Description:
The structure is a single chain. With 346 residues, this protein is of the alpha/beta class. It has three domains: 10-61, Orthogonal Bundle (Multidrug-efflux Transporter Regulator, Chain: A, Domain 2); 80-127; 134-332, 3-Layer(aba) Sandwich (Rossmann fold). It has helices at residues 10-17, 21-29, 47-61, 66-73, 80-113, 120-127, 167-177, 190-201, 204-219, 226-236, 254-265, 317-323, 327-332; strands spanning 36-37, 43-44, 135-138, 147-150, 156-160, 181-184, 242-245, 274-277, 293-297, 306-307. The strands form three sheets. The protein has a six-stranded mixed sheet, with helices on both faces. Strands 1-2 form a two-stranded antiparallel sheet. The protein has a two-stranded antiparallel ribbon with strand order 3-4. A hairpin with an 8-residue loop joins strand 3 (135-138) and strand 4. It starts with 9 loop residues before the first helix and ends in a 14-residue tail after the last helix.
Amino acid sequence: MRPSASFLSPSEAAERLGVSAKALRIYEERGLLDPVRTAAGWRVYGPEQMARASEIATLRALGLSIAEIGRVLGGDATDLEPALATHQAGLEGRIGALAALVDTVRSLRSDLAQGRAPGIGELARRLRPDADLAVAFDLPWPWGGERFELRTVRPITFIVGPLGSGKTRLARCLAEALPGGAFLGTERSADGASAARAQLDGDPALRQRAERALAWLAEEGATVSDALVALVSGLEADGPVALVVDMVEDGLDEASQEALIAHLRHRAAGARPLFLLTRSTAILDLPAVGRDEAILLCPANHAPPIQVAPYPGAPGYEAVATCLASPAVRARTAGTIAWRPAPTAA
């Protein structure tokens, strides 16, 4: 066919829908979406395909897996009720937070009317209660003790850097400095999975959450491996207010990585913040980074870590891109570590 103005390219369709072009390809691969092909074989999306894609994006935003979306679009609404219940709970939580903020503003206005002006510090504290999550500490080796400050903690923060850049040290410092923070390492071998399963057997509530997450991931295309079981059990465990995860892709194939990041992005509102160390494009797909996500880069020259906006041309963007590789490429360098030689005697 010959494309017309009513047909959009993948990038145009993705931008209009608020998703990535990669997401559109996944919808197509899983049989949910059938784009039109031009005479040259290029994919284009007309009104019918855009309407279908909009339905998929809406259901995706509710937290449904690809398999669940397929069933809903096929007329089976079984999976829709729990998704809507979770969405409703999130909205009600936001309403409660907004109501509390309205009360705060009303109180501040009442104080002003009576001649009691709040200080700037008090104003910021009362109008931005989430600011308490910010962390600050002096950077350890390989830095020179510079001060690191993170003023806003997003639901997901990616930590990226080349080998030897200090990203793991930064991650451990964050886990220690964050109120109620914890560090989840890479013990995801068969032994790690056995320990995780023992933990699940001893905690029925945790087991139920983990099984639910694993079922969602499997429907999304993940392989339920020892590494995935160990990781999910750590992610679903009670306790930490914020969780820092070391090399989240370790032991996972590409489909599992893609399913995992989709799962983490569709957590319920108010879920604890996650800091994910990664060097995989399947985990950190730069065009797919959302407004509730942030990227921290540890530069190769051991300059202090910086926050990088996910836009080409932004400071640090190209450095982040060069740190990332596909799972196939990452597999070739699995086990490679940065080594600090022991000091020699004078």
